[in-house]
Design goal:
CATH superfamily of the largest domain in chain B: Periplasmic binding protein-like II
Helix content of chain B: 40-55%
Strand order of the largest sheet of chain B: 1-3-2-4-13-6-5
Number of helices of chain A: 11
Number of strands of chain A: 14
CATH architecture of the largest domain in chain A: 2-Layer Sandwich
Strand content of chain A: 15-25%
Shape of chain A: rod-shaped
Radius of gyration of chain A: 50 Å
Structural class of chain B: alpha/beta
CATH topology of the largest domain in chain B: D-Maltodextrin-Binding Protein, domain 2
CATH class of the largest domain in chain B: Alpha Beta
CATH topology of the largest domain in chain A: Heat Shock Protein 90
Largest interface: A-B, 31 and 36 residues
Strand content of chain B: 5-15%
Structural class of chain A: alpha+beta
Low-confidence stretches of chain B: 1-28, 84-104, 375-418
Low-confidence stretches of chain A: 475-493
Helix content of chain A: 40-55%
Number of domains of chain B: 2
CATH superfamily of the largest domain in chain A: Histidine kinase-like ATPase, C-terminal domain
Largest sheet of chain B: 7 strands, mixed
Mean pLDDT of chain B: 79
Order of helices and strands of chain A: HEEHEEHEEEHHHEHEEHEEHHEEH
Number of helices of chain B: 19
CATH architecture of the largest domain in chain B: 3-Layer(aba) Sandwich
Strand order of the largest sheet of chain A: 4-3-7-6-5
Distance between the termini of chain B: 32 Å
Distance between the termini of chain A: 56 Å
Oligomer: heterodimer
Largest sheet of chain A: 5 strands, antiparallel
Number of strands of chain B: 14
Chain lengths: ~500, ~425
């Protein structure tokens, strides 16, 4: 089930916008502060110039300072933005020599004043001012009293300049954002183009086209394309399997049917009722075989088409294995064989499989062993925990059916799991579907089926099942303490 | 100081409209009524400005006006009326107490004065209101300060002489001529020359300051005027009357706006725009910060700046319009085409604030009185001065270069007058 997430394009643009927005806010804050600072610097310089102009106009008569405020100083002070201006020339003790506004300069500022000057913001009843003070002293024939020159103006010019500077930054930033968004839109489009191309290719593909995709894709999409190619390959494989299976099944059904036909024709050609009876007996036998074959084919097909389902409850394996072995030991087919239960682990072994499927698989394995081994062979059903893996998550349990029959050749060992393979044995009554069914069942259960030779002879068929999670938590590996129980459960020697 | 000469209460009202509007008055921004009209405190002769007021009444009949004509110093005092109740953070202004006692508590709505430095000073103190509007934006930038103070006239400063003078001597055409004349005809001119008093008149002081800035030889002229026992008057009108009466033969630094109109009716008075340079005074108007009718006040000032107002100014008053799109007998453009490029307007700039600096003013007046009162002073003796800073003379090239109208009326700084 595919759930639709938000579009890649939107996500990319969204994140980008958030980034640009945050970055932009930071930039704007910085721009605002720096434009304020620039405006202040520019206007403070004018204050200094005005103070200097007034300082230049200070004259001393007999050591007493005297000042005639020059017009130029006021013009400089007022600036282009026509700020209201303030000036005061004070003597050393703060006495007024000349001033235009009755504004009182804080005495702390006056005390700290030196030739370098002092710039401060001053709130007055005539508006907020930026003031600059400077101490003026001069050498002379008689000792001359120093004076303080204070100048100031309203903040309108600064504000206007700061705002103009900020507006410049702002418009540049907005232009940048617009251009970036346009470029990003194009980029996102271009980047997502391969995806669209891929989609088009997939859409126009015919149902039975399993060739690998051919498209130029970026690195990030390469894995997806590979996965798709693998899927196609598997589908092709599955399809081929199905075709082969159908062909094989038809072939398998055709042989007994041809036999039936021959038997019937032979019977019909005769006029003796005994021949008829013989033929009928043979027909009956063959129909039995054929219907068994059909049954097996049916279950194989059904198994293949069943959906994978993981949600089955945990199952205690030991009891099930014991039960199946006991069941088979009591059957007619096991009459001539020594069918027994070998080692089983002590304590419960939990697996998460469907009981009926496991029964079927195990039954098939036992049936197979019974069928393909000569009478008197020993068949043992065993169970053991795998000890090889240290990884808890992949811990498994093995269920094996071991016989001491003739075994199979190395070549046949590899193809045992495939349908209609009988390890070169055509002598016994079987369809060659048994192991294929087990194989399919095992795959469904998440188990693996493996075959191995036994020493000195015989075949060992092992079904390796994954342990249930809770089992692994409950019972840490205790292979050493496994109870050895080799109790024959049935059959005669 | 001369007592204020005339106070004309001039109320215009369209009573029907006024009565109908009286009910919807607002305490904060009340609509002017007949009982509570828009108060204009102005140093501007009523008979000169009357056509303008008529035009305003026609355009805004719902706004009754109270136009109070005063001297420049009186106008300046009226500005601080009521607002002189200074807050505790400020030291009290010297002499502020007596000013407060003298003037009623109500500030005027609109303040008009030709004492430019004082007007600028009041605006610098924050007593003017900023105006907004199309009229403000289209007004030449050089003729407004902070959009609070507006220079709305263009009045050349002239010399005037009586016809009798030309019978005895060649009338002066420039400052140099005047100086020479005073030196050569000292006996005949004794007591017959008049000029603005820089002590009693804000305009006279401003003009003298400006003269001194343009030429250091101005002090020679002052000394020469002192030598011929020049009579000091506080207004152009008084000087013109003296010329008509025959008391004076020659007047220096008269407001051309009044003199030109006066000369038309009094053929014995001749007006001479100085050939070397002529100062131009610009009357400044602003809306008082504590105006009781700020809306109406703004309307009035904007009317002064509007095309309609300036059209009346150019056509029916001798105040001269600076709006380039206005035509009429009294426009700056026309004046310039008549007298050439020698008009030096005093612009509403922060540098004017220096003129009202008490120390500077005292310094200037002391010096003026010293040169003027030094009856033995000869024109060629320059009193040594420790005070005169070089910047005082050369600091104002910007002013001299200021253009009236970049389109047609550019002036050039001329070093000849230094």
């Amino acid at each position: 089930m595919i759930t639709l997430g938000s579009s890649l394009k939107r996500q990319l643009l969204g994140w980008l916008s958030v980034t640009v927005l945050l970055l932009g806010l930071a930039l704007m804050a910085e721009a605002w502060i720096s434009s304020q600072r620039a405006a202040n610097r520019a206007f403070d310089a004018q204050l200094q110039a005005a103070a200097l102009t007034i300082a230049e106009a200070v004259r001393w008569r007999e050591g007493v300072p005297h000042v005639v405020v020059p017009e130029a100083a006021l013009q400089i002070l007022s600036t282009d933005s026509q700020d209201r201006v303030f000036y005061a020339v004070l003597d050393e003790d703060g006495g007024v020599l000349s001033r235009n506004w009755p504004v009182v300069i804080p005495s702390a500022w006056q005390d700290r004043l030196d030739a370098g000057g002092l710039s401060r913001d001053l709130m007055t009843s005539r508006g907020d001012l930026r003031v600059h003070g400077q101490r003026v002293a001069s050498a002379g024939w008689v000792s001359q009293l120093p004076v303080q020159v204070w100048v100031g103006h309203t903040l309108e010019g600064r504000k206007a300049l700061a705002w103009a500077l900020f507006r410049g930054s702002l418009s540049r930033f907005v232009a940048m954002v617009l251009m970036t968004s346009a470029l990003m839109g194009l980029t996102v489009r271009a980047v997502l183009l391969p995806l669209r191309r891929l989609r088009r290719q997939l859409r126009s593909r015919s149902a039975d086209d399993f060739r690998p995709l051919s498209a130029k894709v970026p690195q990030e999409l390469h894995e997806l394309v590979q996965a798709l190619d693998h899927l196609f390959a598997r589908q092709r494989q599955g399809r081929e399997d199905l075709l082969r299976f159908t062909a094989d099944a038809s072939h398998q059904l055709k042989t007994p049917l041809a036999g039936l036909k021959t038997t019937c024709e032979l019977g019909l050609r005769s006029h003796s009722p005994e021949h008829w009876r013989d033929a009928l007996v043979r027909v009956h036998q063959r129909v039995d075989d054929t219907s068994r074959l059909a049954g097996q084919l049916l279950s194989l097909a059904r198994l293949r088409h069943l959906d994978q389902d993981q949600g089955c409850p945990a199952l205690e394996l030991t009891a099930l294995v014991r039960d199946v072995a006991l069941d088979w030991a009591g059957r007619d087919q096991a009459r001539d064989h020594d069918l027994g239960l070998g080692e089983v682990p002590a304590g419960p072994v939990l697996v998460r499989v469907e009981g009926w499927a496991l029964r079927e698989a195990l039954g098939n394995l036992i049936d197979n062993a019974l069928r393909y081994t000569p009478a008197g062979s020993a068949i043992t059903v065993m169970m053991e925990r795998e000890t090889s893996s240290r990884d808890l998550a992949s811990r498994r349990v093995q269920v094996s059916v071991v016989d001491n029959g003739p075994g199979v050749s190395d070549m046949a060992l590899a193809t045992l799991g495939q349908p209609f393979q009988r390890a070169g044995r055509q002598d016994t009554a079987g369809s060659g579907l048994g192991l294929a069914i087990v194989e399919t069942t095992a795959r469904r259960m998440g188990a693996t089926l493996s075959f191995a030779h036994c020493q000195p002879q015989g075949l060992r068929v092992t079904l390796s099942l994954p342990l249930a999670d809770d089992e692994m938590q409950q019972a840490p590996l205790t292979a050493a303490s496994e109870e050895k129980s080799d109790v024959p459960v049935g059959g005669q020697a | 100081m001369k007592p204020w000469r005339s106070m004309l209460l001039w109320v215009m009202a369209l009573s029907l409209v006024a009565v109908s509007l009286a009910g919807c008055g607002d305490s904060q921004d009340s609509v002017p009524t007949v009982e509570d009209p828009l108060v204009i405190s102005a140093a501007l002769d009523l008979d000169v400005v009357e056509p303008l007021l008529e035009a305003f009444r026609d355009a805004y009949p719902e706004i009754p006006l109270s136009f109070i004509d005063r001297s420049t110093l009186e106008v300046d005092r009226s500005v601080v009326a009521g607002s002189a109740s200074a807050d505790p953070s400020e030291e009290s202004q010297p002499g502020g107490a007596e000013w407060r006692a003298e003037w009623r508590a109500e500030p005027p709505d609109v303040v008009i004065s030709s004492a430019m430095p004082w007007q600028m000073d009041r605006a610098n103190q924050g007593l003017a209101q900023r105006l907004q509007g199309a009229e403000v934006d289209s007004w030449p930038a050089w003729a407004r300060w902070r959009d609070e103070v507006f220079a709305f006239t263009f009045e050349p400063v002239v010399m005037a002489y009586r016809l009798d003078l030309s019978r005895h001597m060649l009338p002066p055409q420039s400052h140099g001529d005047l100086h020479r004349l005073l030196a050569t005809e000292a006996e005949r001119l004794s007591g017959r020359v008049t000029t603005y008093s820089p002590l009693d008149s804000g305009v006279g002081y401003t003009l003298a300051q400006q003269d001194a800035r343009y030429s250091s030889r101005f002090w020679d002229l002052v000394a020469a005027m002192g030598a011929v026992d020049t009579q000091l008057e506080a207004s152009t009108r008084d000087m013109l009357r003296g010329l008509s009466d025959g008391r004076y033969w020659l007047g220096y630094n008269l407001l051309g706006s009044y003199a030109m109109v006066y000369a038309q009716e009094h053929p014995e008075v001749i007006v001479q725009v100085p050939m070397d340079y002529s100062l131009v005074l610009m009357r400044l108007a602003f809306v008082h910060r504590h105006a009781r009718h700020p809306q109406a006040a703004a309307t009035f000032v904007k009317f002064l700046l509007s095309r309609a107002g300036q059209h009346v100014l150019a056509g029916q008053t001798p105040l001269f319009s600076i709006r380039p799109d206005v035509t009429g007998p009294y426009t700056a453009a026309r004046l310039r085409s008549q007298v050439g490029e020698r008009l030096y307007p005093i612009l509403p700039k922060a540098s004017l604030l220096a003129f009202v600096d008490p120390v500077r003013r005292q310094e200037f007046i002391d010096r003026w009185e010293a040169r003027f009162g030094d009856s033995a002073g000869k024109a060629d003796i320059e009193a040594p001065s420790e005070i005169e800073a070089p910047s005082e003379i050369k600091g104002e090239t910007a002013d001299a270069k200021a253009s009236i109208d970049t389109g047609s009326l550019s002036t050039q700084g001329d070093s000849r007058y230094r």
